[in-house]
Amino acid sequence: MAEYKWPAPAERTLIGKRFSRVDGPAKASGRAKYSYDYNPKGLLFGKVLRCPYAHARVTSIDTSAAEKMPGVKAVQVVQKAGTEILWQGDDVVAVAAVDEPTAEDAIRAIQVKYDVLPHNVSDAEPPPGAGEGPPGPMSEDDLDDALSNQVPEAQVISRLQKDGVTFQVTDDMVKELKGYGVPDTVINALKAAPYHPEAANQQRPPYQKMAAQTLGDPDKGFASAEVTSEGVYGASVITHCCLETHGSAAEWPSSDHLFVHCSTQGVSGLPGQYAQALNIPAGNVRAHQDNIGGGFGSKFSPDRWGIATAQLSKSAGGKPVKYMLERDSELMTAGARPSAFARVKVGAKRDGTVVAWQSNSWGTGGPAGAGSPPIPYVFEIPNQRKQHTAVRTNQGPARAWRAPNHPQAAVITMCALDDLAYKLNMDPLEFFTKNLEIAGPRAPIYKEEFPIAADLMGWKQKWHPRGDKAEGPVKRGVGLSMHTWGGRGHAGDCMMTIHPDGSVDIKLGTQDLGTGTRTAILIVAGDSLGLPMNAFSLNIGDTMYPPDGGSGGSTTIGGVSSSTRRASLMALDQLFAKVAPALGAQPGDLEAKDGTVRVKGDHSKSLSWKQACAKLGAMPLSVTGKNPGPGNLINSGVGGVQMADVSVDTETGIVKVNKMVAVQDCGLIINVKLAESQCYGALIMGISYALYEEKILDPVTGRMLNPNMEFYRLAGLRDIPELVVHMMTDPMNDNRGVIGLGEPPVVSPGAAISNAVANAIGVRVPFIPLTPDRVLAALEQQQKAGA
Amino acid sequence: MADDHEKTPSGVSRREFLKISGIAATVPLVVPQVVEAAGEKVPVHGPGKVPMSFTINGKKYGAQLEPRVTLLDALRDSFDLTGTKRVCDRAECGACTVLLNNKPVYACTVLAIEAQRQPITTIESLSTGGKLHPIQTAFVEHDGQQCGFCTPGFVIACKAFLDKYPHPTAEQIRYHLNGNLCRCGTYKGIREVVAQMSGTKGA
């Protein structure tokens, strides 16, 4: 039996080296197909009529004129009269027509009447005492929110018992919750919860205070602090802005079989979601995706529009219908990162040791409020008092955004600590390093990373006490931040088949988000079987292949690399058993290297890979490697450090980043080149959200003011400075096994850039994005305070 | 405008010339309906589909399209040339960049009807017989792509840029390649592409 471990560093032929992505040529030549590109003969085009109001009730829908239009093949009411709409752009009616212009005309011919209701799109600081009243019965959203944000079990149970629920608890719901691993104690409390249907339609207060949390003795902590710093920090709502919008093409090969091409981060997870909504067995749903044009956490569900697309196809006799969101719908409805703000007080000893933290935080995730950010971030400050208020708004629903809640937590924590370092008259590098003792389980890695980052940035030469004293309006400064993430590989299966002619095919239901998943699978398989990467036929992105977890939370690389490694070793076990007699050896004495199967230590006893596979006889061998599985191939928990160098024009308020440095660990790295790409990409995305991105809603109309790519601004090539990435690749990290990398490097840029701006201009700009108006407002405050 | 009545060598005024070139020279082979607007006779195409013909990557294409259809949608939906991507659909992101008369344009803001009788070059023509254009090879080598959705537009933009500025300055690179947006953050690789192709230090 094979021992399930990674090959020793000296024996690796492909793992840990630098490879270009294997699907690079297809992407660069435009041949790579996306769901958006699915273009079968007879394709019908979908369009969706969307609610123009942030809060309204649908009172009547008249689709008769649209139905009579030539070329219109199906009309589907998505949210019927009587439904309360909670955000602008929510789906009301969908149509399918022979071409897109006809579908657009059909949408215009539909008459929908609304009762416009009062809206709230502001996530400004809640007034004192807000949200303190009884929370009332829990809605389904409240429950989901509590469960997905890890509200302590006892709290959820007590609320269910005391306040009850606004919805009927069904067997299906219980089954689903059990499937998510919700404990029986909570489920029993849910089943027994008093039912208050009348509360479902009641106007709910916009604020909800969460239970206060304390750790240690905050009063004593602050009493012992010799220096304290107070401030307000935060991050506005931003969107995902995937370049390929959400959407799908759906068709019914037979009346109870659905086939979808869906832009998704989780191919294997789709059938269950369609099945539930369409009342067909999940086994009758096939989902396929070759490539995805960005997801960043927002693409795990078929969504309302996706279900409607399948319904339209069904009404049109099963013909393929494609509906991809328009850019404005994408930005209004298809996901946003919750805002988070906090008033923070933090205290330290004169020597810089942080001893106490207090925060009153708030933020919005749309209609269901939002989970509280994990503050204080990274640092386990011994004495803490925290209170979070969720703000319910008609902003549109939040979705996981690359490293959910961490970038906001980093801004709040690292900026508050940077301000404290300023009050202590300490260089932040010295201050953060001094407090690494309370930096959690990854403290040793931070200790290694800080000097490397400082060296690459030239921190010692560039850092100056807060406020650049240089002449002229442009001020320069440096800042730093640090972050952590889990990233343990998700569950998934890899099926490997070795054919008697020597060909090898690999099947996984995973997806490649552009992170290099295909490339990583081939590196692991090639290294394991002693074959080049192009020796394999790799198939991913279809529910016909073994299920694999969704690509979120940096879980894909650990999942696919370990299942592929296990499948490879299992396959070799079986192959060696067939080949050993021909080489006059025991199976355990064989190895697969350099395109041969040979006796270890005696290369004269060797068969070419093809000759060896011929020993299989007529039938191929097929194995399925799983994660989790035997052997410690993967791990969890990384730490990274980033530094930013910025220039700020104090006359215009424009911030320009001059240089960024990222030092990052992620255990054993499968492909160093694409790991670095993840970090470069994260720095660029980070510069974008630190300086430019904000979902802006008009308080008067409740509508999004920038649902396009001109005023919802992404960083362009011109905005990107010199970027330096250093991956920690020493044996200590290597021995930990494979850990995910997608999320961690995107966490720190907001905080690092904000701290650099404070260092440059001598005053804190409280919130990101650090737009010119915010920078100028902070400078004006500073001037007033000085005058 | 002062030069409205400036005569061209053929003797027609520029204004008349524009009218002819903007409509008559680019429209389909059928006689359009003529209506009177503001006292002038104006040819009208549509509503409804009209025959159109195109020269794309050196090949002839024809389709019945409504005059309101964009070049981008014609390429993708009528001719299955899906390498050109629809992202913002209003000339903000560059994912739909194609060459029209060898000049880069955003295909989402060119009407198909206007793009007739002018050579159109799309990403599909750059690699022939599976052989990548050197710019495409450089995109792969420098990993100037992740999800790949902005890549075809960027490749075309880089090609047009390097054809015009074979040895660009850093500022030229920053200025001219700022009209294409990427969400995954591949600009560093793309700058390396340009640096390699032009033998310069890049942006």
Q: What's a quick, concise take on this entry?
A:
Chain A is α+β, with helices and mostly antiparallel strands and 787 residues long. Helices cover 30% and strands 23% of the residues of chain A. Chain A has 22 helices and 30 strands.
What can you tell me about this protein's structure?
- The complex is a heterodimer of chains A (787) and B (203).
- Chain A is of the alpha+beta class and 787 residues long.
- Helix content of chain A is 30%, strand content 23%.
- Chain A is built from 22 helices and 30 strands.
- Chain A has a seven-stranded mixed sheet, with helices on both faces. In chain A, strands 7, 8, 9, 16, 17, 18 and 30 form a seven-stranded mixed sheet that branches.
- In chain A, strand 24 and strand 25 form a beta hairpin.
- In chain A, helix 12 packs parallel to helix 21.
- The longest helix of chain A is centred in the last third of the chain and has 28 residues.
- Chain B has 203 residues and is α+β, with helices and mostly antiparallel strands.
- In chain B, 29% of the residues lie in helices and 17% in strands.
- Chain B has a five-stranded mixed sheet with strand order 4-3-7-5-6, sandwiched between helices.
- In chain B, helix 3 packs across helix 6.
- The N terminus of chain B is likely disordered.
- At the A-B interface, helix 1 and helix 19 of A face helix 2, helix 3, helix 4, helix 5 and helix 6 of B.
Descriptive keywords:
heterodimer, A: 787 residues, alpha+beta, seven-stranded mixed β-sheet, B: 203 residues, disordered N terminus
Could you outline the blueprint of secondary structure elements for this entry?
The complex is a heterodimer of chains A (787) and B (203).
Chain A: H1 24-28, E1 44-50, E2 56-62, H2 64-68, E3 72-77, E4 84-85, E5 91-97, H3 100-108, E6 111-116, H4 140-148, H5 153-163, H6 171-179, H7 184-192, E7 207-209, E8 213-215, H8 218-224, E9 227-235, E10 238-239, E11 247-254, E12 257-262, H9 270-278, E13 285-288, H10 303-315, E14 321-324, H11 327-333, E15 336-337, E16 340-348, E17 354-364, E18 383-391, H12 406-423, H13 428-434, H14 443-457, H15 459-462, E19 474-485, E20 492-498, E21 504-507, H16 517-529, E22 536-539, H17 556-583, E23 590-593, E24 596-599, E25 602-608, H18 609-614, E26 621-627, E27 638-649, E28 655-664, H19 672-691, E29 722-727, H20 731-734, H21 749-761, E30 767-768, H22 772-786
Parallel strand pairs in A: 1-14, 9-30, 12-13, 17-18, 21-22, 28-29
Antiparallel strand pairs in A: 1-5, 2-4, 2-6, 3-5, 7-18, 8-18, 9-16, 10-15, 11-12, 11-14, 16-17, 19-27, 20-21, 20-26, 23-24, 24-25, 27-28
Helix pairs in contact in A: 5-7, 12-21, 16-17, 19-21
Chain B: H1 14-22, E1 33-37, E2 40-44, E3 50-56, E4 59-65, H2 71-78, E5 97-100, E6 103-106, E7 119-121, H3 134-141, H4 151-164, H5 170-176, H6 187-198
Parallel strand pairs in B: 3-7
Antiparallel strand pairs in B: 1-2, 3-4, 5-6, 5-7
